[in-house]
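Q: My labmate handed me this sequence with no annotations at all. I'd like to see what the chain might look like in three dimensions before we decide whether it's worth expressing. Could you predict it?
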Amino acid sequence: MQNTSGPKALTEYILHLSKEKSNKSFLILLVQGILAGMYISIGAIAYFKIAASVADPGLGAFLGALIFPLGIIAVLLMQAELFTSDCMVMTAIYARRTKINKIFKILGLILIFNVIGCIFIAYLTNASGIFNDQVMELVKATAIKKAYMPFGRLLVSAILCNIIVCTAVCLAYSCQSEIAKIVALWLAVVVFTVSGTEHVVANAYYLFAAYFGGVGIELTDILYNLLVSGLGNFIGGGIIVSGVNYILAYKDIEKHFLR
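A: Here is what I predict for the chain of 259 residues:
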């Protein structure tokens, strides 16, 4: 029976995914990237609605964290393209299977498309009026905290965030059944949500929901957060998680491809 877990199996699977992603057309990346941003935003809507409705802020954040993973689960099961987990395609660079400029182009496009999906749902959120004043106060507080977070803290928080998120995705990749994937991903993403670390795609929704809601943040503040958190997420997932797994698996991987 073929082993489906561990660094070797994970690295082989990510190399397979990397080849698939590099062969996708611009239109497919566009649609799947926008959908991923929308899915994450849907989870964030539920988070804010639940968290703001509970008198105890700690309990509200925990209950909201239980439903937030819906977005990332949808990304995985619907095979959408999410920047944070896609950072692990850097494995293909370590294994010398593709050129770095091609990977950077793919990741850059996916991030842009993710943000477009978040902007779309953030606009609909405000236009539909589904957030009452209580929810908007939480959105405002969250956005202001993120928009003015010091560079060092923002970068490190984003690195930690994608270590958690990519570990969650690695666990899901290692599971064979759909229900096992969901459970593994759900539990790990709850940890990420409770941690309050910086996820560039989720942040895009938080910040634009606040911006469209009239919160006093500028587009330059949003751009600052997204650039720094995006860089941190790339380091956490593309360098640390995928790099460590490749170091553990590279001897077996090289033998496999040299046969």
